[in-house]
């Protein structure tokens, strides 16, 4: 049986490996988050790509242009793609268009796990649970019954809304998309216009941002009470001006990768399931041709 290479990532990758091995696959790892001391070099990357037709990269694959890994040495995208071979199948999450093109140019094929409905749905649920846990831990006030602002009402935003409703919170939602606002309103949220955000924030106990682009500018952040717990859940650049927050002395809880921290087993085994399904489809398709 062919081997599966697993490179980088957070604690979810440990459970991806566990799941695949339980189903009879041999694995090789590099830049792995299991605490073992491995040789963290590009030579080890080359060995993985040389030995394994199927390669599992992290979710997301990159952070700030480098491999998403807790290892001290972090290969950049160019180093990562250097060893991709013709016919290789590369799994991961949130591939950029450039990264997909690089894999394609080298004769490989990319499979973005974050394009799968089931993964997106469960990832949002795990993010919401983690966000609530962080809010409770990082605020001097109780979450139950509090006033919460939620900016961005996509999958993660709506999942967070449901969790906050279960805690008896009053939720005020802002989203540029009118359809998203309508969904939030139907789910029981109050809707806020952009011009009123600053005023509402001064009364709120918590701010959850899932909007991927700028919402909270310096002008909106001015005068925010120190007690407000602000949680940035969106990927870079996010919806909060962090430089402005620093200048104003406002602390932002930046929380990427919550599923990997709060639900690595559930999230990792789910990724493993979907990877295995896709590998089985690939092999079945090849047998027919």
CATH domain topology of the largest domain: Rossmann fold
Number of domains: 2
CATH architecture assignment of the largest domain: 3-Layer(aba) Sandwich
Spatially, the strands of the biggest sheet line up as 10-9-8-11-12-13
Helix content: 40-55%
Pfam family, one: DpaA_N
Organism: Mediterraneibacter gnavus CAG:126
Domain Dipicolinate synthase subunit A N-terminal: 3-114
Protein name: Dipicolinate synthase subunit A N-terminal domain-containing protein
Describe this structure in words.
By secondary structure, the chain is α/β, with parallel strands linked by helices. A six-stranded parallel β-sheet has the order 10-9-8-11-12-13. Helix 5 (117-138) crosses helix 6. It is elongated and about 60 Å long. Helices cover 43% and strands 17% of the residues. The protein folds into two domains: 1-114 and 261-285, Rossmann fold; 121-255, Rossmann fold (3-Layer(aba) Sandwich), CATH 3.40.50.720. Helix 1 (12-22) links the parallel strand 1 (3-7) and strand 2 (27-30). The protein starts with a strand and ends with a helix.
